[in-house]
Design goal:
2 domains, 228 residues, Pvc16 N-terminal domain-containing protein, Pvc16_N, alpha+beta, 26% strand, 28% helix, 3-stranded antiparallel sheet
Length: 228
């Protein structure tokens, strides 16, 4: 799932306001060594934190349907995770970096939600919408200063980008075949040779009426002409 989110982000960051700009999009850790090797304007999206969104955890099972909308399997609900990215721009001039960050904001702000049809692989197969939050209030335990210190670099203007994505739960369980008939009720008279049977309570009214008529006729055969 994480690599699929990476794929979506690279496509988003390389499009929108930056379409046709030729700006590179990298996912590497922006260390001093990486910065020294860079030789072209680059947008960097570094995944620095992964945490479960426990507020979205669900219990129970979800149905898995086939192309006929028949339930064929059941599985646990997906677990949702917050993937936090440190987005930075790298050029030779600070003003150019600020322009790139502005372009990133212009690209991501309208895309608060990504529809399942835009998601690749197993992420799209879940049929769930993925949320994106950019430059919001940081809620992770690590501060940006600590992150830059761990990377061995100097503090740099950045955007905190959070993608909340579902992770499929395993295993899946086979479901029984669909129910096509209702419950059957069998009632016997005192005369064991002529059992009276009522079946399929969900039958249409005209079918039930015909069965009632046949039942009445069988009961009449076991009684006298005076009804006793």
């Amino acid at each position: 799932m994480i690599h699929e989110v990476d794929e979506v982000l690279k496509e988003l960051l390389g499009g929108g306001a930056l379409t046709g700009s030729g700006i590179d999009v990298a996912l590497d850790a922006p260390t001093r060594d990486w910065a020294a090797r860079r030789n072209a304007p680059t947008i960097n999206a570094y995944l620095y934190d992964i945490r479960e969104d426990v507020n979205r955890r669900q219990r129970g099972h979800m149905p898995v349907r086939d192309e006929r909308d028949v339930i064929v399997k059941r599985r646990q609900p997906p677990r949702w995770f917050r993937l936090s990215y440190l987005v930075t721009a790298w050029t030779k001039q600070p003003q150019d970096e600020h322009r790139l960050l502005s372009a990133v904001l212009a690209t991501l702000i309208p895309r608060e939600l990504i529809a399942p049809g835009e998601l690749p692989g197993s992420l799209g197969a879940l049929g769930l919408t993925v949320g994106i939050s950019v430059a919001g209030i940081q809620t992770e335990a690590r501060s940006l200063a600590e992150i830059w210190s761990a990377l061995g670099g100097e503090l740099k203007p950045s955007l905190d980008l959070v993608v909340t994505a579902p992770f499929p739960a395993y295993p899946e369980y086979d479901a029984g075949p669909p129910v096509t008939e209702g419950a059957a009720v069998r009632v016997r008279t005192m005369d064991e040779e002529h059992p009276v049977t009522e079946e399929r309570a969900h039958r249409p009214a005209h079918v039930a009426a015909a069965r009632d008529a046949r039942t009445t006729a069988r009961l009449g055969k076991g009684r006298g002409t005076d009804g006793t």
